[in-house]
């Protein structure tokens, strides 16, 4: 966190505890943005007391902030009816998303903020995680800038993160240069029409993870028995819960492949839950073709990214 702070990054915080952690890492309050789609009054007060800007997620939050902190500068997250991602559970925009104020209620939000003497200094959207299509981001930014036109005097337009990496060999990397050119064109058009130039910034992005050493995990069935293998490995969905939650795909490779024909293999964890399987898709178990494995072999679960550690339960 200190390295990111020195590099000029902001910190996205979602609880009073994360505010304290970010402050301990040296982030000043004006480089924190508080998010939370179910923030309580106490949570909002904790952010206000620390001087942290709140990214309002709902009309209810907007109303409560207006009653408690008139004159405060806020940002507003909008659901701009564009979603994307590698699984329905990680899509955070669109008609089924719980996040943000519907962009069709932008005028209502503006009226409510003005009545409560809240200054809308930023607008924000987020469409999902693992997005690889530049056009999807461009459509999201175009919709968000349509909303931004209704809020003169903005300091910031935050188009969220979710930039993906290829998890499967057949997937193509996001064309970042092309995305940059398309976003620049949209932004310059907006600035020319509005006579303003708010900061345009991405929000929380996915941090790509390359190959990492992980404890060996067994294949199910075959020789030797699963019982022996379970005693010889020490990882499970307590370390990487994404496959169990929504069938996320992670390439699995043997650190030192053995010669021999690849075999359909199911890689499981050591937790006493039938869902503790790393080779799981959206609709159930999906065996992988892996080289022959023996007890004690080291394998790599690739591209675990930003969320494996954050979602892992720890004492």
TrEMBL record:
What are the record keywords, sorted? Answer: Decarboxylase, Lyase, Pyridoxal phosphate
The positions making up the signal sequence are none
Task: List residues of the Orn/DAP/Arg decarboxylase 2 N-terminal domain.
Answer: 2-191
MF (Gene Ontology) = diaminopimelate decarboxylase activity
Q: InterPro entries in the record, alphabetically? A: Ala_racemase/Decarboxylase_C, DAP_deCOOHase_LysA, De-COase2_C, De-COase2_N, PLP-binding_barrel
Q: Which CDD domains match?
A: PLPDE_III_DapDC
Which coenzyme or cofactor does it need?
pyridoxal 5'-phosphate
Residue span(s) of domain Orn/DAP/Arg decarboxylase 2 C-terminal: 234-305
One GO BP annotation here?
lysine biosynthetic process via diaminopimelate
The record's listing under Pfam families reads: Orn_Arg_deC_N, Orn_DAP_Arg_deC
Q: Enumerate the PANTHER family for this protein.
A: DIAMINOPIMELATE DECARBOXYLASE, GROUP IV DECARBOXYLASE
| Protein name stated in the entry | Diaminopimelate decarboxylase
Instruction: Provide the species name.
Output: Geodia barretti
């Amino acid at each position: 966190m200190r390295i990111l702070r020195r590099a000029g990054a902001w910190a996205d915080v979602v609880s009073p505890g994360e505010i304290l952690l970010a402050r301990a890492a040296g982030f000043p309050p004006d480089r924190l943005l508080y998010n939370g789609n179910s923030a309580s009054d106490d949570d909002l007060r904790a952010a206000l007391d620390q001087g942290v800007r709140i990214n309002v997620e709902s009309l209810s939050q907007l109303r409560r902030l207006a009653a408690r902190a008139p004159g405060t500068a806020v940002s507003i997250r909008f659901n701009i009816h564009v979603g994307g991602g590698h699984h329905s559970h990680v899509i955070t925009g669109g008609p089924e998303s719980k996040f943000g104020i519907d962009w069709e209620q932008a005028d209502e939000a503006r009226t409510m903020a003005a009545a409560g003497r809240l200054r809308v200094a930023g607008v924000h959207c987020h469409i999902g995680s693992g997005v690889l299509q530049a056009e999807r981001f461009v459509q999201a930014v175009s919709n968000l800038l349509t909303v931004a036109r209704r809020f003169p005097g903005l300091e910031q337009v935050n188009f969220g993160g979710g930039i993906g990496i290829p998890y499967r060999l057949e997937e193509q990397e996001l064309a970042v240069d092309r995305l940059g050119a398309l976003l620049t064109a949209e932004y310059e058009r907006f600035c020319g029409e509005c006579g303003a130039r708010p900061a345009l910034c991405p929000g929380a992005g996915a941090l790509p993870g390359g190959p990492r050493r992980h404890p060996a995990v067994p294949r199910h069935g075959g020789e030797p028995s699963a019982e022996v293998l379970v005693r010889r490995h020490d990882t499970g969905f307590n370390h990487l819960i994404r496959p169990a939650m929504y069938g996320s795909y992670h390439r699995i490779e043997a650190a030192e492949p053995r010669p021999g024909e690849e075999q359909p293999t199911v890689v499981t964890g050591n937790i006493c839950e039938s869902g503790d399987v790393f080779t799981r898709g959206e609709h159930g178990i999906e065996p992988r073709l892996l080289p022959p494995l023996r007890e004690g072999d080291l394998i790599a679960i690739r591209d675990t990214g930003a969320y494996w550690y954050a979602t892992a339960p720890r004492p």
